[in-house]
Amino acid sequence: MTLIEHIRELRNRLFKASVALLVGLVIGYLLADFVFGILKQPYCAQFPEIRCEDVKFLQLGAADGFLLKLKLSLWIGLIVASPVWLYQLWAFIAPGLHRHERKYAYFFVALAAPLFAAGAVLAYFVVSKGLHFLLQSGVTGVETQLEVTRYISFVTNMLLIFGVAFEFPLIVLMLNFVGVASAKRLLGWWRVAVFVFFLFSAVVTPTPDPFGMTALGACLSALYFGAVAIAFVNDRRRGRGKEIYADLDDDEISQLEDDREPVAAGAPIEPIAPVAAPLPIDRRFDDDIT
Question: On the CB side of 288, how many CA atoms lie within 13 Å of its CA?
Fold first, then answer.
């Protein structure tokens, strides 16, 4: 394909993805109230004596409610339209990949979606516990009422951070599949990896209590060891780590049994008689030209 054809294909792919996002935005606008009710549940759980419908947020700006609904609609639209725009992205990239690269891409995409969803679910429960600690640890006697846009941003950011954190095992697998790090080396890094996981968990969790940090750090550590186990299977399939002759000298004899049989000398080869030189030609190439 020429450069102009590539640009035209990119334009067509972007147009189809944009149409899908627009349709997803409309669907998200219709589902925004339902999704807002789900995101509101951790806050409602802090007031068990009040119905969730009666729990109110604080709105500071006149347009904050409408802008928040559009923001939720956009997030929902991205999720609803993800099969379309991901396919358009893949259809544009796939022709430039080799067959094994496509196979790896299918594998990683198939793992990325459930891992992100698992991280988001964990974040939802951590937010609920974290809100209880934060609201109960405030100044005594102060009535609590959260501002709606900041609360939704807090919840969605936690969902995004936890979801992206759960993609880390894919990076570990990618390093192994491309041959950068073997499974044995990855296993040797487990102390550093666990320390980094718990340090990251201590930074991103909203509360100083050990429960949310331990939950995230333990899940990331378990995913890391799971990725290392898959790396061991991949190394065994490819035969890595079996280079038994890597430390031997070039002149060192093999330790195989020496069952060689002597070979007798062959018959002498008679020399080939030289070919006689061709006779000189007295005629010129233009003698036949009249």
Answer: 1
